[in-house]
Specification:
This protein is of the alpha+beta class and about 350 residues long. It has two domains: about 10-125, Phosphorylase Kinase, domain 1 (2-Layer Sandwich), CATH 3.30.200; about 135-350, Aminoglycoside 3'-phosphotransferase, Chain: A, domain 2 (Alpha-Beta Complex), CATH 3.90.1200.10. About 45% of the residues lie in helices and about 15% in strands. The protein is built from twelve helices and ten strands. It has helices at about 10-15, 25-40, 80-95, 135-150, 165-180, 185-205, 250-265, 270-285, 295, 300-315, 320, 330-340; strands spanning about 40-50, 55-60, 65-70, 100, 110-115, 120-125, 210-215, 225-230, 235-240, 245-250. Strands 1, 2, 3, 4, 5 and 6 form a six-stranded antiparallel sheet that branches. Strands 7-10 form a two-stranded antiparallel ribbon. Helix 4 (about 135-150) crosses helix 8, helix 6 (about 185-205) runs parallel beside helix 12 and helix 7 (about 250-265) packs across helix 10 (about 300-315). The protein starts with 9 loop residues before the first helix and ends in an 18-residue tail after the last helix. This is Ser/Thr protein kinase RdoA (MazF antagonist). Keywords: Kinase, Transferase. GO terms for molecular function: homoserine kinase activity.
Length: about 350
Amino acid sequence: MGGRKRTMAPSDLCDPELVPTHTTVAARSVAAWVQRHYGLAVEHCALIRRGLNDNYALRVAGGARHVARLYTLRPRGPFNVEFETALLAHLQGRGVGVAASVDTAAGSSHVRLQCPEGERALALFHHVDGAVPDALDEFAATGEALARLHAAARDYAGPPSLYPLDGHGMAGRTLAWLRAYPGLDARVLASYESLIDALLDELAAAEPMLTRVLCHGDTHGFNNHVVADDAGGKRAVFFDFDDAGPGFLAYDLGVMPWSYLFRKGLRETEDTLQERWAHYLAGYRAAGGVVTDADLAALPLFIQLRHLWNLGEAVGRLHHWGTSAAPEDWLRKQIEVMAAWQKLDLHPARTDTAAGPPV
């Protein structure tokens, strides 16, 4: 009766059948890890969002702001962090506006931490002020910054990306994940198999004429901020290079119009998209970026391939995000959506780009 009550250990509470697929780490744990491995006194830490990776906002002693990224176990394979951080250091050294990483106290680009689902990487990046592009001159500034990024990356010679943005990376993996989708209607799967085969044939035919660059890979307008400089001009700074890799200029350019077609849908008029695109392309060219007729003609192809890449990220993470991220009825509709995008007209003849962004 009077014996001491036994305190249960965490192992006593853990069901042996429990298999974790993803841990959302508490902000205080991330703050402690940053303090331990980076030697920074963290005053504030908060989860920004869970997505392809988990990102946390930090403020350290002295007021400096950072973003800590806890890399998620992605179905594509190992972390690409060695390439990403080396590329950022190279671009920063060339004067390109990027959110470069911060080395650990031991001089490493990142640390590896054990989570219940497996080992994950943690890296720390500088915070970027400003906001996502909204005004037309901000889309022009984004295009200019992307052109400078592509030019500066030409002589990058560091660790290679593990994930080139080729046909397999954009669509091949997606098809494999669709085939593993539980209970997917055979007709829907057959439609995707036919579509992906046709798009990859089109890519193979166009490939010899297309411009190759080291792509940012995720230039959808929400991975860069625009800030005003001391002279009142606007400049763009890019961040989140986890999907960077060697690929095609038409892909890196096409991600922005895809983003607004996908995110805004009917809420965005065609004229609004065309205005943004015209300024974006004109800004790219104003900074010395060369876009050929073949690159422009391939934009509808790459907008569809981008959509398949994005769709694949959802169907490849059913264990983490669930089927609601890409339900079967939505998957069925995307075949028609991509068929409509084949007719997109993003030719610069809609505006005069010779004199810079239209006014």
